[in-house]
Design goal:
- By secondary structure, the protein is of the alpha/beta class.
- It has two domains: 3-28 and 275-402, Aspartate Aminotransferase, domain 1; 34-272, Aspartate Aminotransferase, domain 2.
- The protein is 38% helix and 14% strand.
- It has helices spanning 3-10, 34-44, 53-66, 77-87, 105-112, 131-137, 157-167, 218-228, 262-272, 275-293, 328-337, 353-357, 366-374, 386-402, and strands at residues 70-74, 95-98, 116-119, 142-148, 170-174, 182-183, 186-187, 194-198, 211-215, 232-233, 250-251, 299-301, 308-309, 315-319, 375-378.
- α3 (53-66) runs parallel beside α9 and α4 packs across α5.
- The longest helix has 19 residues, at 275-293.
- The protein is globular and about 80 Å long.
- The two termini are 26 Å apart.
- 46% of the residues are buried.
- Residues 1-9 have low confidence and may be disordered.
- Bound molecules: pyridoxal-5'-phosphate.
Amino acid sequence: MSLIQEKTKELPAVLGGEPVRQTKLYYAHQYIDQADIDAVVQVLKSDFLTTGPAIASCERRLCEITGAKYAVLCANGTAALHMACMAAGIGEGDEVITTPITFAASANCALYCGARPVFADINEETYQIDPAEIERKITDRTRAFVAVDFGGQSVPEKELLEIRDRYGLVFIEDGAHVIGTSYHGQMNGSFADMTTLSFHPVKTIAGGEGGAVLTDNPEYYQKLLLARSHGITRDPALMEHEPDGPWYYEQIALSTNYRITEMQAALIESQLNKLKAFGDRKKEIVRRYDEAFSKLPGLRIQKETEGSDTVRHLYILRIDPAHLSIDRRQFFEAMGAENIVCNVHYIPIYYFPYYEKLGYQKGLCPKAEKLYEEMFTIPLYYAMTDQDVEDVIRAVTRIAGYYEK
Ligand SMILES: *Cc1c(COP(=O)(O)O)cnc(C)c1O
């Protein structure tokens, strides 16, 4: 019998006979109200389905919320990361440092540009990329680092900005989780050279698909506009040849079509009207979780980055093997038996076969690898009811209590 089969055999049945709930609860779900629906329908009745006033309006709104000078909405958060790397001029022979505990896109964006991702280990308590580990990985090929606000907490901006300035690097913040969070009173989105956002429906603001890049730098802004649409410009100031008519445009760089639709932009802007309510409710759920779970010896909760006032995107629990007789997988499956469907964020990127074939090997970031063995994500989203929250707390408490060493 394989190890996995043995473990499966030992998996706990539902403790106490009945699961804590009868219907399944998932780790994330969007919240759409009538205002969102009306906003999309209004666009459908208008003249523009792409590249029109809803996009411009949503971009202005993102600037107001985050304090960034420029926002460029685009197809998704992955496109946003690729556009940011293109605008930063990252290319063949360059190295881009990032964390392994993130979605694959945070590192893939370097590969898209012909550069090599380099992985820096995390802080054991906040699970964010560790500035000292970034510094250890800097070589004369390093051009940029992509710091991910993992789970919605801010990365340590102060230390990262110091490293950027000391080594002359480009600081790209993958803020797919971060909208609504502030750091020492200043909104995230206004610290890094470029911050990328995602509006995938599991994220705080749902656009179906959608992303954005925020920046204060007018040169990056110009390049981001080119990167969003084939490297094509209609701005005579950027052209190399004399326009031979009013139809004239030029392709002056190479990119692809990373545009977003007007319907998505209208939905995102309508969702942004609820950002405060989304954030307040998530903070309330996180307070209740923290209070309940910090008492359990078998579990550890994520420590807050100093200065981060967080709108949490993910709630991560970490088992403490010294105080628990089951492992992460068994805890995860016991939660499933209670009808609470958890997730794991994330598998270290360099574990993937694609990365293995590029020569990456296990052992690169021991703290990240240990975290991966021990963590799982429990449900956290605005539309959860108080009963849902209580169910999660009851299930976790029950399992952690039963298997306490
Ligand atoms: C979701 C996510 C992305 C990619 O965003 P998409 O909109 O799904 O393309 C990138 N980085 C992180 C950390 C994410 O969570």
